[in-house]
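Continuing the series of single-chain predictions for the mutant panel. This is the parent chain; the variants come on the following pages.
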Amino acid sequence: MKYTLLITVCLLLYGSDSFSKNTIAWESEKKEVKTKASGLFSKKRIAKFNNSKGAPIGSYAKTLAVDNYKFQWQPRWNFVGLGGALLPFVLQSIDQSTLGIVETLPQKNAEISSIIVFINLYTMKVVNYMLMTGKDVREFCYVPFSSNVVCLIKYPFNKYSPKAKFQLQTMDTHIDLPVSTSTIIRNEPTTLCCSSDGSKLFVGFKNSNRIKIYNTEELTDKPISLKTVKNPIAIKRSKDGKKLVIAGSEQIQIFDTEEQIIPEETINLPKFFTPDKIILCSDDASSFIVSNYGGATYFYHDENFTKITKRTDADVKWDPVGQNILISLPQKKTIAILNKSDLENPKAEFRYKRMRPATNGKLYKIIKLPASGAGIAVLDKRGSLYRLYKKRQRWYKEIIINQPKPQ
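Parent structure:
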């Protein structure tokens, strides 16, 4: 059954802050509507409306934003019992200017759809979104120097072939159309990362010791296979683009990418430690943080690992301006700001949940805001997004997106 997209817009005007309710409907070749899905998102044309306000030229926020339109979005997260919202994927751009959030819209008796929302972190406003109809987006990565992103899509379920399959798709965020789509991938991808010039896509795979290198403009081209660490769970490129860092089971491997991609260094991780996240803390990838959900977090500097905490069930972030580490400490229910030269004595430590206005969710993501003095943003497991900032030696909280209602 082939499905085409029919988008109808019902304008429900309750004042200047109201949403247009976009209804997505799929119909068969016989024009019989099978099911509908609703989301609170709108796109209204307003001449000279500047969505890229505050963002520097060349930043992702400047490139991805679509001006002359006002975007609004109110998430309708899927809630799982008392466990909170099901947040599929959240990614901050490497220059810290943009936050991309994936929201899934599950349908009864139909394929899942996704929406990817882009927020300008200089203004904390939605500046663009993509409706991925009939596509279950699991994660994405930004393509430098373009308005494109590469999405990892779980292929629709087939009862005759129940094993999960995947596809990669390069999308132009300005027109919601694919630039290129890969063939079906049968091994499960675990991580995506683009090269600094945007021409290459590095993909790691579950239960593998290889990554594959795709052409982002022609994903159908046969990828190059490169041997690396076991189970590559995270791939990061350095800010200068000269290094590629791959974290896996027991080891981290650093590749030199200046002329050709060759292994330069292999670093053994602490015994019995396997990370699920790596955060680079220097432009040349000489220092980094590795973290394991529910386990320890280490800081690697001067060729040594230093344990920051024995356990974290939330996020850790690097602040390149202040040269600080931002980390959630679940034992104390706080966010700590650590200087890399003195990891035992936090520069600041505060209980964000006790700050007014009150919020109830556990911390999910810490987002370092790019503007000077803007502070940090926090996304919690109830779907709330808020900004924490310091003024006259005191921390304050500003709600950006309040806890959404369950879908």
